[in-house]
Design brief:
about 200 residues, alpha+beta, Ribosomal Protein S5, domain 2, Alpha-Beta Plaits, five-stranded antiparallel β-sheet, four-stranded antiparallel β-sheet, 5 helices, 11 strands, about 30% helix, elongated, YigZ family protein, Impact_YigZ-like, UPF0029_Impact_C
Length: about 200
């Protein structure tokens, strides 16, 4: 699968076509709920606009909405631009102030797509790194050693449970999983036990 990208920060651009103003914004988001919060705050920020059309690329949460424009003339062209750029975890919103001249379906498709494309010209793209989780059990005596290794390798500890032994859930880039298992086994002199290393 080709490399996917997301944005390091929100970007925006504005165009005017036949007296209609189009403000295009592309915003990094983690999931649909966050995207809807951002959309809601843009509606509050620009209450005088006629349309707040959006397109979201975030795995199964992806979607698009024409917000009152003729069906297929806003959300879908915006989504196509995001997909063409191999983006994910981004919300595109185009805020439109109608200028009194109708643009027709073709004109709208071009305007909405162009507003998103122009905003993305200023984007700082970051590669999306696919993460996986490692679940392991280690003796108490080894906990500090493993925690220190995690800190050094910038591996996140998502959960820690203490019973007869310590159970840790680690989050790390998928590409580093097998090396991490080997490192931890060596570190714990073979006393670590991996419960599962399924991608989450």
């Amino acid at each position: 699968m080709s490399q996917l990208f997301t944005l390091s920060a929100t970007v925006q651009a504005e165009i005017e076509i036949k007296k209609s103003r189009f403000l295009g914004l592309v915003i990094p988001v983690n999931h649909r709920a966050e995207a809807m919060e951002k959309l809601s705050s843009l509606r509050q920020q620009y209450p005088d606009a006629n349309h707040h059309c959006w397109a979201l690329l975030a795995g199964p949460d992806s979607g698009a909405n024409d917000d009152g424009e003729p069906s297929g003339t806003a959300g879908r062209p915006m989504l196509a631009v995001l997909q063409h750029r191999s983006l994910c975890n981004v919300l595109a919103v185009v805020v439109r102030w109608f200028g009194g001249v109708k643009l027709g379906s073709g004109g709208l498709v071009r305007a909405y797509g162009q507003a998103v494309s122009l905003a993305l010209e200023n984007a700082d793209l970051q590669p999306v790194i696919k993460k996986t989780e490692l679940h392991l059990t280690i003796p108490y005596a080894m906990e500090n050693r493993v925690r220190h290794w995690c800190e050094k390798q910038q591996v996140s500890i998502l959960a820690a449970e203490c019973a007869e032994a310590v159970t840790l859930v680690l989050s790390l880039p998928e590409a580093q999983a097998s090396a991490a298992r080997a490192d931890i086994s060596n570190l714990c002199q073979g006393q670590s036990r991996f419960l599962s290393d399924d991608a989450q």
